[in-house]
Amino acid sequence: MFDTVVIATDGSGSAERAVEAALDLAAHFDATVHALYVVDSGEVESTPEEVRTELERALATTGGRALSFVREAAIAEADSDDIVTAVRQGDPADEICQYALDHDADVVATGTRGRHGEHGFLLGSVAEEIVRQAPMPVLSVRQLEGAVNPEREQV
């Protein structure tokens, strides 16, 4: 039923729960797993020129960590690191949907709240856009009530 699962991750707590759910689903169906991180080009372009390079570096680091989390979770879950990882740049929802289409994905898994906080009423803005655009099923996994998202902690 599910041969290819795409996990859209931004490294947030909500995305980490989506990773766990998607890996369970993939293991059940012996599906190929693709982990995708998208650098939001709009976020980069709207940043002042003098800090843009630093922001791009920070986003690349975040993406690397997010994809490493998926790989490590897959090893722990199924004793397998057979995960396809990819980084794209552009509008996150558009890139995720296009990647899923390009790889003939059967399902896309995403968290409902990402690094940018609570933009939507029920879903984060990227998750909501994926649900609206994707022609395949979307598994949206919410963050547990009261769970702390490290990206939004006050230091």
Folded structure, characterized:
With 155 residues, the protein is of the alpha/beta class. It has a single domain (4-143), classed as 3-Layer(aba) Sandwich (Rossmann fold). It is 46% helix and 20% strand. It has 5 helices and 5 strands. It has helices at residues 13-29, 41-45, 49-78, 92-102, 125-133; strands at residues 4-8, 32-40, 83-90, 107-111, 138-141. The chain has a 5-stranded parallel β-sheet with strand order 3-2-1-4-5, sandwiched between helices. The protein is globular, with a radius of gyration of 15 Å. Residues 115-123 and 149-155 have low confidence and may be disordered.
Strand element count = 5
**CATH-assigned fold name:** Rossmann fold
Reported CATH architecture: 3-Layer(aba) Sandwich
Helical residues, percent = 40-55%
Structural class: alpha/beta
- The low-confidence runs, each spanning 5 or more residues with pLDDT under 50, are 115-123, 149-155
Mind telling me the CATH class? Alpha Beta
| N- and C-termini, Cα separation | 45 Å
Written as H for each helix and E for each strand, in order along the chain, the element string is EHEHHEHEHE
**CATH homologous superfamily title:** HUPs
Radius of gyration: 15 Å
Discrete helix count: 5
| Major sheet description | 5 strands, parallel
Strand order within the widest beta sheet: 3-2-1-4-5
Count of the domains: 1
